[in-house]
Amino acid sequence: MPPVVDIRALHKVYEEGPMRVEVLRGIDLEIAAHEVVALCGPSGSGKSTLLNILGCLDRPTSGVYSLGGRDVSTLDREEQAWVRLHYIGFVFQSFHLIPDATALENVALPMYYAGVARGEREERARAILGRVGLADRAEHRPNQLSGGQRQRVAIARACACKPRLLLADEPTGALDSRTGVQVLELLGELHREDGLTIVLVTHDMGVAAFAERQVHLQDGVVVDERRADASSG
């Protein structure tokens, strides 16, 4: 089985007039199926840019990014959108829920864009909300939910189209420590039960310890990689 993520000699350069900023400088990275990886590093290290490329929200300037054996480095915007919808789930620090939509509607939305019939997407959305412990909050809007509940809705939405790769950008950053632990435990359950491959971006080493492997970036390059058993020893 090919790795879910296979990145080779990845560079990302932003140019504005005479200014040229090289954010990623030759990243090589493999992420195996069912692995949980944390991308760590200080602000400006390149981890958010790398996450955007992993999520097909941006394209590298050079290098190759293979997702599940398919080169997605040079896809156009329409092709990127299709890959995001069918292969990738996103969880954000600020949830990004639609404020006027219920939890059920938020979770069902990706399935609408994927062409799932109305009855099936509602049934699946209710089932996913049940899995994340929110069956009784299906008709609540985001402003009627706690921060932890909103993040659970966001995780349910991210899993709605059964992605191969789940990307989580500071998923506990807006939560208190106890709720953050609960969210990580939920991600762990989904990883074990559904075989999700998960990539976390975090500056919190407590969150990074949840991952099986930590990839540390600095100034656009990978400076260290360590597995959980090594980092705990």
Characterization of the model:
With 233 residues, the protein is an alpha/beta fold. The protein has helices at residues 47-54, 77-87, 103-113, 118-131, 147-158, 177-194, 205-208, 228-231, and strands spanning 5-16, 19-31, 36-40, 62-67, 70-71, 88-92, 165-169, 197-202, 213-218, 221-227. Helix 4 (118-131) crosses helix 5 and helix 5 (147-158) runs parallel beside helix 6 (177-194). It is globular. The mean pLDDT is 92.
Question: What's the quick description here?
Answer:
The protein is of the alpha/beta class and 233 residues long. It has a domain at 5-96 and 162-231: Rossmann fold (3-Layer(aba) Sandwich), CATH 3.40.50.300. It has helices at residues 47-54, 77-87, 103-113, 118-131, 147-158, 177-194, 205-208, 228-231; strands at 5-16, 19-31, 36-40, 62-67, 70-71, 88-92, 165-169, 197-202, 213-218, 221-227.
Which features does this protein show?
233 residues; alpha/beta; Rossmann fold; 6-stranded mixed beta sheet; 4-stranded antiparallel beta sheet; 8 helices; 35% helix; globular
